[in-house]
Amino acid sequence: MSLDSLIEEIRARGEAELRATLEAQRTELGRLASERDRAIADAGTASARSADAEIARERAQRIAAAKLAARQRLYEARERRLEEGLRATRVLLAEFTNDPEYPEVLRRMVAVATNELGRPIRVSGRAEDAARLGKIAGKSFDPTPRPIVGGLVAETPDGNRRLNLSFDELLRLREDRVRELLA
Question: Which CATH code, of 3.40.630.10, 3.30.2320.30, 3.40.50.2300, 3.40.640.10, is assigned to 97-182?
Answer without folding.
Answer: 3.30.2320.30
